[in-house]
TrEMBL record:
Domain of life from the UniProt record: Bacteria
Keyword annotations: Kinase, Membrane, Transferase, Transmembrane, Transmembrane helix
Domain Signal transduction histidine kinase internal region, chain residue ranges per copy: 159-237
The UniProt record lists the keyword Transmembrane: yes
Keyword Repeat (UniProt): no
GO (cellular component) term, any one: membrane
Listed transmembrane segments: 14-34, 46-67, 79-97
GO function term, MF aspect, one: phosphorelay sensor kinase activity
Protein name, entry field: Histidine kinase
UniProt organism field: Pedobacter frigoris
Organismal lineage: Bacteria, Pseudomonadati, Bacteroidota, Sphingobacteriia, Sphingobacteriales
């Protein structure tokens, strides 16, 4: 699967290069035809074809040799000096091509000047410098723009992985503490917690390493977590969980809703000795609009944890992940009332702002020669 994806990416890259150079060839032919009116279009096309290898040499040396060798290591002086030396070399190669190949082809041989005089003629040197640099630096600009975009994507993906990784130990420690408390009392519910915990851990380890997971599967894990907490609190907790709408063929980032539910249990229910309640509503409406609401009772006596309930890492992570993934395609509203905490999340699942597929290829990109 990965090999097929890599091969497709390589084929697409080759195709992009071919398309770019074909467009460049016709662009050069048109500009040469405008400048040299004595030549027909076919002749200027062939002249441009003679000069294309010089453009190849110029661009690919910069893109695949100079930039990867010096830019990544921040050797800017060496990069600038190497580029200048290459530009001078290409300039004279361009003139040599004009003198020895293009001149005889179009029957334009200057017998009044020596080769050195033709080669160093200021007018022709300036003209050759402009023509040799225009196309190549346009292509290099595209390359740098693509490199900047890929670095930005990689940075965002790294941040997403970091945010997601913070969820795992936080949840795991809480659940293990619950399990430990039950084993001390030789509770028969310990086995149910072990089974539920193993299912969640299997999900975290094997299925959460992807960009998206099925919404139905993520909700299934959320239900497992709620079941574990329900076992822990027993009759102390009045829990309502409702799910409506068609969940088929919908995908979400893994564990996106779990921190909100975990906060409800940790900072609401755990601080109340009785009459604790939590309500969780998950609904999907057309077109692919996900609405998630979690509300929980609030302790009568406020403490420091309650005051900073919605400033915890879990909520910050959720909001930051949403900012990166959905930008303006979501709403997260927090309500901190006298008797309840509530969080309402609405997402348009069709409007994802960042595509982090191919992360492995993106990392490898910076270990190899530059590509555009």
């Amino acid at each position: 699967m990965k090999l097929d994806l890599k091969k497709r990416n390589q084929n697409q890259r080759v195709l992009n290069h071919l398309i770019f150079w074909v467009i460049t060839l016709f662009f050069l032919a048109v500009t040469n035809n405008i400048q040299v009116t004595s030549l027909n279009y076919q002749s200027t096309l062939i002249v441009s074809l003679f000069l294309l290898p010089v453009h190849f040499l110029y661009f690919y040396t910069i893109a695949y040799c100079i930039v990867p060798k010096y830019l990544e290591k921040k050797h800017y002086t060496k990069m600038i000096l190497s580029t200048i030396a290459l530009a001078v070399l290409v300039l004279f190669l361009y003139r040599l091509t004009e003198i020895f190949i293009i001149g005889p082809y179009i029957s334009l041989i200057n017998v009044d000047q020596t080769i050195v005089q033709q080669l160093t003629n200021p007018y022709h040197l300036i003209n050759a410098f402009e023509k040799s640099n225009l196309i190549v630096w346009f292509a290099v600009s595209i390359k740098f723009l693509k490199m900047w975009h890929e670095r930005k994507q990689l940075t965002l993906q790294t941040e997403l992985n970091f945010l997601k990784a913070q969820i795992h130990p936080h949840f795991l420690f809480n659940t293990l503490n619950n399990l430990y408390a039950l084993t001390l009392t030789n509770s028969s519910k310990s086995s149910s917690i072990v089974i539920g915990l193993s299912e969640i851990l299997r999900y975290m380890l094997n299925e959460c390493n992807t960009e998206n997971v099925k919404l139905a599967r993520d909700i299934e894990i959320l239900k497992n977590y709620v079941m574990l907490e329900e076992i822990r609190y027993g009759d102390r907790l009045d829990l309502n969980l409702s799910i409506t709408g068609n969940l088929d063929n919908l995908y979400v980032p893994p564990l996106l809703m779990l921190p909100l539910v975990e906060n409800a249990f940790k900072y609401g229910t755990s601080e109340m000795l009785k009459n604790a309640w939590i309500t969780i509503n998950i609904s999907v409406t057309a077109p692919n609009q996900l609405k998630f609401k979690v509300a929980n009772s609030k302790p009568l006596q406020k403490n420091q944890n309650s005051e900073i309930h919605f400033k915890k890492i879990g909520l910050k992570n959720v909001r930051r992940r949403l900012d990166i993934l959905y930008k303006d395609a979501y709403q997260l509203n927090i309500y901190n009332e006298d008797e309840l905490f509530a969080a309402i999340l609405e997402i348009n699942l069709n409007n994802k702002c960042i595509n982090t597929n191919g992360q492995g290829e993106l990392k490898n990109h910076h270990k190899q020669n530059g590509q555009y």
